[in-house]
Amino acid sequence: MLLMDFLKDEYDAIKLKERHKLRNKTVLITGGNGLIGSNIVNYLQFLNKKEGLNLKLLVHSFSKPVEWLPVDENIEYFSSDLNAGFPEWKFDYLINTATYGTPKKFLQNKLQTIKLNTETYTKLLELARLNNATVLQMSSSEAYGQVPDGRDSVDESYNGDVCTFAPRAIYGESKRLSETISKVFIDEGMDIKIIRLAIGYGAGVKYDDSRFINEFIKKAINNGEIVMLDEGKVLRQLSFITDTIEMILNITLSGKERIYNVGGVDIKSIREIAEVIAQNEGVEVKLPEVSTSVGGTPKSLILDITRYINEFGCPDFIPYQKGLAKTAEWIKELSRVKAGV
Question: How far apart are CA 313 and CA 311, in angstroms?
């Protein structure tokens, strides 16, 4: 089951301002097994076949490629620990999505997370400089940390407020430093774009992905109920994966600024998201007696995406109800594959 088949209609609706810039180019994608990385690989291959771009893809992941990545003579896969080194690849674009993106993963891999976002990223930039390549660095909305009470949203000019001793600072602070590292290379003339991403979700997640939307769906399917970690009052800004991919690729190919917020227009509490998933699956949502959420979690973080909209126009965002249903469909398909059905 390839993502490009599962998301054919959604991929076909993606609008790229200057897709011709991909013709006869080579794109290196790191983090190729992740939600964003695997969708970028599948979409670029979808576009390559549709428009005959003669595009070559170099795809790196920590473990062997997931089964929903396409196999083709124009795609070359590499599996290794990026922190341990990498080949002297030749490429025109680097889309760096390699990260330990879930709290469970980065809390289990603390120093590796920091190294990946700093030392290893620096080495990737040095290679990109040798290739005279354009770079897209995936930062995070966690670079903003806690937003002051009374502030509805943050734009790219907000400098953030991260407690360096909070458990999640391992991720957020190392992403902030990756942006500073980027600026060093930008000052030397490199073309680097940085995205600060809100909640991207959708088809392409692994079954064991522990981010809250996927956990809610699995709890609903497997347990017949959704038990929350807390009351779920904080707000989250949702962006279905194909909307996210459209924004990322437009920024990579055509962005005039250096830093962009990337997110959707649906802003819902975690409890509301759980309720929609529960309603779709015919189960109940239950609250815990004692909160067990991870310390340092941002309370409510809404990204102002005006900069992107002013430059590229507003995407035709997929409504979150439809996106959540599509994500559940994907996870159910993974469950069937896992069970050998």
Answer: 6
Phi, psi of 333 (to 5 degrees): -65, -40
Backbone angles phi, psi at 239, to 5 degrees: -140, 115
CA pair distance 130, 25, nearest whole angstrom: 16
- What are the beta bridge partners of residue 77? 59
Give the three-class secondary structure for 307.
Answer: helix
Q: Are 196 and 156 in contact (CB under 8 A)?
A: yes
* Alpha-carbon span 127 to 190, nearest angstrom: 11
Nearest partner of 19 among 50, 62, 57, judged by Cα: 50
Count Cβ neighbours within 10 Å for each residue of 159-193 and write b for 16 or more, e otherwise.
ebebeeebebbbbbbbbbbbbebbeebbeeebbbb
For residue 319, how many C-alpha atoms fall within 13 Å in the half-sphere facing its CB? 4
Tens-binned pLDDT, residue by residue, of the chain (341 aa): 789 999 999 999 999 999 999 999 999 999 999 999 999 999 999 999 999 999 999 999 999 999 999 999 999 999 999 999 999 999 999 999 998 877 788 889 999 999 999 999 999 999 999 999 999 999 999 999 888 877 879 999 999 888 899 888 999 999 999 999 999 999 999 999 999 998 889 999 999 998 899 999 999 999 999 999 889 988 899 999 999 999 999 999 999 999 999 999 999 999 999 999 999 999 999 998 776 665 555 567 899 999 999 999 999 999 999 999 999 999 999 998 877 76
Q: Residue 39 CB: number of other CB atoms within 10 A?
A: 28
pTM > 0.90: yes
Residue 96: beta bridge partners? 30, 137
